[in-house]
């Protein structure tokens, strides 16, 4: 393994379009961990929406593009357990038995990681230099937790953030109800699930909720915002990197929420 | 009440979310089962290894299913039992009716059986002037309420105690109307007294089977109330309803699976009653039925053998996937409109009814994966739901708008440069609209999202555009 590996950042479509600050936070953390970071321009989406909608052919076509664009790097890192999990766990399944693509999919899968687990497990990061005066709770996204085995790593790094206290949810292993297309296909059920999640967040007494997947965060922050809650939501990478950005779904200007970070 | 149907899943789910009594009952359920299972699994160091062993037993049996079914039949017949093969629910109902008529049956007691539900047996028996009496407390309650089970191991989980009391007051009219029925024990004692008479007057007893044993020709049921024993021992005739995949090679195999079943289902180390039946009463037996029948129901199952769906036949019906499912926890079991609700139902129902009829169910999952995580038999439920979605897509059964949208998305995503060009405008527009509050309260074509939540506004500019700018700035400063 090279001491200064070249990492290809799989930006994810949501970060690319909605919250570039998460991408820049990831770049900053990876550089702090001694990596050279590239963001290949031939990327848009991992193909999960097609894959989970039964459109296997489209998912395969998109996956081939991702494999070709990313297989030349030492590692592929995504600030998302969901997109990372798609590449690391589902690409091999997508090409099972395909003589031309199976080996390439498996090789890419083997070097693809979720951001925080890559920093801790592969790069040996144990602390960050960052500060946030907040009582936080952490939401484990289902794919981070179950597919990418991310649970202790973000908590470990968050412990090193000055001024930050962490309070656990009562049901940290329960889905927030995002589920990609699920939340628009079954909005009422999804709403019941996210309402349970925001109630759990509120009962911890935390003023801030963090997570490692922007999909969950947009769902949770969108619900908190609709309910008029002042609880702030950030991607965990933004806090660990100390990147300045207003909380998700809140504005910088006073009256739009509790404003940007210190 | 209009009949429940998987085609009306969305409407039924919406109604369930607004049903205050149901939500009260579900709230009580959600924590209990999960905690109990977790404690039971934590207490057994070899629990994960036991799961592997269980999977291996079932995989082996399924790989040689014909062999074990024939061996089972031979042994069951040797023990004096009669084995009937039923291709579908209709055939199985006719077999039950014939046995009941031959026995001159007026009253039939029933232990809990999901195969009986698959057969829609109770209305059929009633239509043929035979009175079915459910003897499992939960099943008895929902029979009085004219409902179907909403959970595979806790059929009345959707009913609150006060609603049980109401049902008892309505049906047990010989008892004093002002009797106290506030506490669980009051309800239990009353049900026990009512059912005692019915056990004794029954001509035929019908039970399910948790396992069929190939080496002995036995059937096994596990219960917590002992109602199964009285159902199968007291009447003259005992009928066992079982599906093909219930067979396992040996008694030893069944005990391994039972250790998983009770822990996964209710957090018990073992169910209270485990009853093994091998043929009818033998000379010298103090009790037992004179006739012992087993009906083996296929009902669409054999069509799935050898396909990717075969894994679902490892299911031992513990209900852990229901207990841990956030969708089931939000809407309960009836909204699914099928015999089997929850994650297992989302995989099994399209197999039993056709994906054209049950297609909404495998789609109604956020793929959180908790069901697979707790399934003692490690059935990859999300993967199998995805396979159903693929079949639905391949057969063009999903709505045209969805297919059109997916096609457009896939076309654009495969052309990153063009995709980015289009996205730039959409993002700029949304960022502009949401700039003051940081979110949008409504957006055309995003009603599914904005009905219940605000849409976080984009920060403005895509990552890739900003990244390109940053790189060229860096290059300039480096020079």
Task: Give the low-confidence spans of chain B.
Answer: none
Largest sheet of chain A: 4 strands, parallel
Low-confidence stretches of chain A: 253-259
- Multimerization status: heterodimer
CATH homology superfamily of the domain at 44-299 in chain B: NagB/RpiA/CoA transferase-like
Radius of gyration of chain A: 18 Å
Discrete helix count of chain B: 23
Question: Could you characterize what this model shows?
Answer:
The complex is a heterodimer of chains A (262) and B (479). Helices cover 47% and strands 14% of the residues of chain A. Chain A is α/β, with parallel strands linked by helices and 262 residues long. Chain A has 2 domains: 6-121, no CATH class; 127-241, 3-Layer(aba) Sandwich (Rossmann fold), CATH 3.40.50.11810. In chain A, the strands form 2 sheets. Chain A has a 4-stranded parallel sheet, with helices on both faces. In chain A, strands 6-5-7-8 form a 4-stranded parallel sheet, with helices on both faces. Chain A starts with 5 loop residues before the first strand and ends in a 21-residue tail after the last helix. The model of chain A is unreliable at 253-259 (pLDDT under 50). In chain B, helix 9 (161-171) packs across helix 10 and helix 15 runs parallel beside helix 19. Among the domains of chain B are: 44-299, Rossmann fold, CATH 3.40.50; 417-478, no CATH class. In chain B, the strands form 3 sheets. In chain B, strands 1-10-7-4-2-3 form a 6-stranded parallel sheet, with helices on both faces. Chain B has 23 helices and 12 strands. Chain B is elongated and about 100 Å long. By secondary structure, chain B is α/β, with parallel strands linked by helices. In chain B, a hairpin with a 4-residue loop joins strand 5 and strand 6.
